[in-house]
Amino acid sequence: MKVNIDPTSGFCFGVDFTIKAAETELGKDGSLYSLGQIVHNKEEMDRLREKGLEVIDHEKLNNSRGIKVLVRAHGEPPSTYETATKNNIELVDTTCPIVKKLQERIRKAFTEINEVNGQLVIYGKKDHPEVVGLMGQTDDSAILIEGLNDLDKIDFQRPIRLFSQTTKSTEIYLQIVEEIKMRSDNFAKGGNYFVPKNTICKQVSGRVPLLKKFCRDNEVIVFVSGKNSSNGKYLYSICKSVNPKSYHVSSPSEIDVKWFSGISRVGISGATSTPKWLMDKVVDEIESMK
Ligand code: SF4
Description:
Blueprint: E1 2-5, H1 13-29, E2 32-35, H2 42-50, E3 53-56, H3 58-62, E4 68-71, H4 78-86, E5 90-93, H5 97-115, E6 119-123, H6 129-136, E7 143-145, E8 160-164, H7 170-184, E9 194-196, H8 202-205, H9 207-217, E10 220-224, H10 230-242, E11 246-249, E12 265-270, H11 276-288
Parallel strand pairs: 1-12, 2-3, 2-4, 4-5, 6-7, 6-8, 8-9, 10-11, 10-12
Helix pairs in contact: 9-10
The structure holds iron/sulfur cluster.
């Protein structure tokens, strides 16, 4: 049985940058606070905790003074920066440049759309940290939609600007665009009435065709990621749709030898939050079952 690792899997550059920055700070000081989990991956978080990382929440940030806190790749709303200034907290800001740019675009579009009595709509997952940061650019007054079922929240008689969380599904985003176009066409007053901005990260959307091919080329897929990773759930659903013999695990201990009976090619893939060392451990576990 041959075990292949998907060459496009593993950390995206945003997460990679955050982890390297955390390791640099931990190397200097031996301790560091992180506002929320850096990655939705328990094994990687355990590794960083052993090096001195402590995860805190916004309540602890509000009650702290003079500490050093890492802002992860997902970014933060403006209120976090205000709290840090007020409480003399040093931020190690590792917001992914793509997310930072998206925050700026949303802030600008929000000002513009307000001038014409329009609405800013964000396609994303409620309470996801990136979405909290994006909503914060609009004083939390953007309309958040999690899918097609939420479109009734939009007033189709007023101008609409649509943005997306960077890790959402392109397929559903495009369906949302078509549906909004259909419903708002009756009221359109010129080409600027509904303006969709596809802000899904290319590190995520660009992987989909390659992942589909990888899933076709292997008989069984073991997809490694935290079970609460939004990007992990999305990419795993792609694997399952192409290859029904796809299994989602968060650690090598969840692997079942029965999956590989009579199989000659196994593929290992992972989310943008899955460390390479964890996929290597999964390979070792499967190799030991031969
Ligand atoms: S998925 Fe893209 S936008 Fe999100 S952190 Fe990674 S590189 Fe940045």
